[in-house]
Design brief:
Blueprint: H1 2-31, H2 37-46, H3 53-63, E1 66-68, E2 71-73, H4 83-92, H5 97-106, E3 109-113, E4 116-120, H6 126-136, E5 143-146, E6 150-154, H7 158-173
Antiparallel strand pairs: 1-2, 3-4, 4-6, 5-6
Helix pairs in contact: 4-5, 5-6
């Protein structure tokens, strides 16, 4: 029993620095133009966050941060997303902060069709949202297929599709009480 408490404590300690680092990344990208991962890593270092290139790449991908012509950018619509809202709402809504942010930024519409859910995003954003959805590990999601601006979510049955559809809409509305799909 003592061992499991130690493991849980270690997992919690590992997660907290990751969330603090990701919060710092969001704030840095919001506040200034960052042209390279090297620049971002140096800025994070100045704030006390040591991160290697692989971890930084994973963070950026999971958070939906993309590199545009002017440097790293938050997903469209995310500039006004309060970081505290993402952190507070995501666990209660059955997703990660990454899924919450991706839904807030990229989900344009959701339609349920029998045991499937069809999501629409702006052009080029479907894969970012699909990766966040897959990473959330929702039990009702058997798989996703992402195109350029459309995601097909396959669920085991119509009830599961309804739960997934409703949970995504709750995340989009910023509801903190949504059920994990």
């Amino acid at each position: 029993m003592h061992t499991s408490r130690m493991i849980m404590h270690s997992t919690q300690e590992a997660t907290e620095p990751k969330e603090r680092r990701r919060a710092a990344i969001l704030e840095l990208v919001r506040a200034q133009r960052i042209k390279s991962q090297g620049d971002l890593a140096r800025l994070l270092h100045n704030l006390g966050h040591e991160v290697n290139q692989a971890t930084l790449s994973r963070d950026l991908r999971d958070m939906g941060v993309v590199k545009g012509a002017g440097g790293y950018q938050l997903p469209t619509g995310d500039a006004a997303l309060p970081l505290a809202s993402a952190a507070a709402a995501a666990p209660a809504a059955g997703g990660s902060a990454a899924l919450y942010g991706a839904v807030q930024a990229w989900l344009a519409s959701s339609v349920r069709a029998v045991n499937q859910v069809v999501l629409r995003t702006p052009a080029g954003a479907a894969s970012t949202l699909a990766v966040a959805l897959d990473a959330a590990g929702w039990k009702d999601v058997l798989g996703t297929i992402a195109g350029d601006d459309t995601i097909l979510i396959i669920t085991p049955d119509a009830r599961a599709a309804t739960r997934v559809h409703k949970a995504l809409l709750e995340l989009k509305r910023g509801a903190a009480g949504g059920a994990r799909a």
